[in-house]
Amino acid sequence: MQAILLVGGLGTRLRPLTLTTPKQMLPVLHRPMLEYAVSGLARHGVDRVVLALGYHDDAFRAAYPDGRCAGVELCCVVEPEPLDTAGAIRFAFEASGMDASAGTFLVANGDVITDLDVGEMLRLHRSAGAEATIHLIAVDDPFRYGVVVTDPGGRVSAFVEKPPGPRSPSSWINAGTYLMEPSVIGRIDAGRRVSVEREVFPAMVADGALWALRQNTYWVDVGTPQAYLRAQLDLLDGRRGPAAAGVSAEASVDAEAVIERSVVMAGAVVGAGSVVRGSAVHSGAVIEAGATVLDSVVGSGATVGRGARVADGTLIGERFTVAAGADLSDARVP
Ligand code: GDD
Ligand code: MG
């Protein structure tokens, strides 16, 4: 089966990290986020992944020059301008040479890390004769997502993207993985911005053609600073697979530094008396002596000066410096 991975968004909520690196190329533990998505699909029989690119497409090509990732063939297509989620699906389908003979294909939001069982989804898709089937999970804060209501058999009766509060019709949300028949492409206008969540799915609901599978498996949308950190801490804590090591063997950590529940990547330097907790320190970053980093991300090659304190979801952009003694909370540098 072929898959289209939507990776062309601007990653606005992860700025300034995404000013220099597209969201799906940011590291999660010690590998780019993209590789989790691609290897997850590969485990479920996907043998070709089309990357629907826009922003910073060069970073993907540079990382996978031989056109392979996690054992899967990658095909890169670049929209002339951002076409939104459905526009991107149509563009990727056509530009990568897929056609009606491709049969059922998969589409996924590239910023989702999940252990979804695609096989179970495919069984529902086939038995229901669905034109498209979407994966649902239950969350406490459905307003931030696409909210989905189904009948007992799984047919979708309402799809409401980011509903205004205070009451949500359901706690089940669109988890960002879809199975689609090629006929869905015909529902998407060419050459303009079209949202799959705001236009295409509601139209399919009206036709009774959209189905959904509830599967509460491991799932995180890595689009916010908190979720980006949580995805990594989940791997460290063993909440997803065996507990992983957080500190790279190629990082240099002073014996007098304290590192707790954190990721410290290759080439990073952590000085004496500093404390790093619940955070990610990217490759080549420097945490100078006596500095404190709490629940924050220090981008590649960035520096946290002596005695500085960065906390509460602060993001420090690639190669930027936090001055010695500074005190930052929930800040963006720059
Ligand atoms: N190629 C391309 N072109 N990709 C795009 C574009 C575009 O114009 N716009 C967004 N994307 C990609 C993003 O890179 C991301 O991987 C994916 O589409 C979804 O965009 P987000 O910006 O992350 O959307 P969201 O997280 O607010 O909401 C979406 O995901 C939720 C689940 O994580 C929606 O699909 C919601 O319905 C869903 O609940
Ligand atoms: Mg997202």
- Per the CATH scheme, the topology name of the largest domain is Spore Coat Polysaccharide Biosynthesis Protein SpsA, Chain A
Radius of gyration: 21 Å
How far do the termini sit from each other?
42 Å
- Going across the biggest sheet, name each strand in turn: 5-6-4-1-7-12-9-13
Major sheet size, sense and barrel closure: 8 strands, mixed
Fraction of residues in helix: 10-25%
Number of strands: 29
Bound molecules: guanosine-5'-diphosphate-alpha-D-mannose, magnesium ion
Q: Return the domain count.
A: 2
* Uncertain segments: none
Average pLDDT number: 94
Q: How many helices does DSSP assign?
A: 7
Name the CATH superfamily classification of the largest domain.
Spore Coat Polysaccharide Biosynthesis Protein SpsA, Chain A
CATH structural architecture of the largest domain: Alpha-Beta Complex
- Based on secondary structure, the structural category is alpha/beta
Shape: elongated
Summarize the structure.
With 334 residues, this protein is an alpha/beta fold. The protein has helices spanning 17-20, 33-43, 57-63, 84-95, 118-128, 196-206, 225-237, and strands spanning 2-6, 27-28, 31-32, 48-53, 68-69, 72-78, 105-109, 112-114, 132-138, 146-150, 156-161, 172-180, 210-214, 219-221, 252-253, 258-260, 263-264, 269-270, 275-277, 280-281, 286-287, 292-294, 297-298, 303-304, 309-311, 315-316, 321-322, 327-329, 332-333. Strands 5-6-4-1-7-12-9-13 form an eight-stranded mixed beta sheet, with helices on both faces. A five-stranded parallel beta sheet has the order 15-18-21-24-27, with no helix packed on it.
